[in-house]
Amino acid sequence: MPTAPKWVFDTLDFFMSKLPSVEVVRTEYLSSSVKVIKLRGLFNELSASVGAFFDIRINDTEARRYTISSIDRENNTLDLIVYLNDSGLGSRYMDTLEKGDEVYLNKPRNDQKYYDSSVESVLFFGDETSLALACSFLPMLEKNKQNFQFVFELDESNMEVPRLLGLKDSIVYRKGDVFRREQRIAELDLFKNRSSVWAYCVLTGNVKSVQAFRKAVKMKTRSKVKAHGFWLEGKKGL
C-alpha cells in the first residue's frame, strides 16, 4: 500500500506493534544509487524469514517497502539496501537518512514465500530492487548447501555492486540489454548449458523483465518458478 489517506496510516500505526528505539548507526553508498543503511534496535529476538520487509512511512500519506537484507542479532543491528531513484519520494527520504536519525518501524512482515529449502538448486534473477532479497537468500543457500546462481540486470553505475555485497556466483548484465524479450533470455548460455540444473527460479525486480524471464524459463525448463515484480515504469513507487 504505497499511498493511502492520512487517517488510514494513522489507524494502522495505532494498532500495529512497533519496534522501539530504532536508530541509524551507519550508512554507506556502494554507488550513486545504492545505499546500505544499518539500523540498531531490539532485533535479537526479531522474527524475520527470508524476504521479510518493513513498510516504512515516509510522510503522512505515503509508505515504501524495504526488504531486510541481514540481521546481526548479537549486535542488535540489521541492514537495508535501498535503490535511490531520483524521482521517487521513498528514494529521496532514504537518501536523507544519516547516522543518528531515528526511524519508526512496525514489526516486519512477509507476504511471500520466496525461499524453498527442499530444492537442490536455485536461480535468482533481479535488479537493484532485488539486492536486499538476494543478500537474505545467500546465507540460507550456503547453510543448506544448495547450488545457486544470481543473475542481475543493473544500471551501468551498479555493475560492481553484487561483488561489493559479497553475492557470490553472480552474473551481471547491463539493464535493457537482454531481459525484455523471452527469446533473447532463452538463448543465454545460462539455459543452453545448465537448463537441467535449476530446480527453482526466483524472479524479481522489473515487472516486464520478470514476465519475459518467466516465459523463457517455461520455454526451456521444467523448473518451479516464484515470480514477483517489484516495480513497473510509469507506476508510482520507489
What is the number of E strands? 11
Strand order of the largest sheet: 3-4-5-2-1-6
Poorly predicted runs are: 7-11
Helix content: 10-25%
Summarize the helix and strand pattern as letters: HEEEEEHEEHEHEHHEHE
Largest sheet: 6 strands, antiparallel
Global outline:
globular
- Evaluate the radius of gyration: 18 Å
Mean model confidence by pLDDT: 88
Indicate the proportion of strand residues: 25-35%
Structural class: alpha/beta
How far is it from the N-terminal to the C-terminal residue, by CA? 12 Å
Total of DSSP H or I helical runs spanning 4+ residues: 7
Structural features, described:
There is one protein chain. The chain is of the alpha/beta class. Helices cover about 25% and strands about 35% of the residues. It has seven helices and eleven strands. The protein has helices at about 5-15, 90-95, 130-145, 160-165, 180-185, 190, 205-220; strands at about 20-30, 35-40, 55, 65-70, 75-85, 100-105, 120-125, 145-155, 170-175, 200-205, 225-230. Strands 3-4-5-2-1-6 form a six-stranded antiparallel beta sheet. Strands 9-8-7-10-11 form a five-stranded parallel beta sheet, with helices on both faces. The two termini are about 10 Å apart. The model is unreliable at about 5-10 (pLDDT under 50).
From the structure above, extract its key features:
single chain; 238 residues; alpha/beta; five-stranded parallel sheet; 7 helices
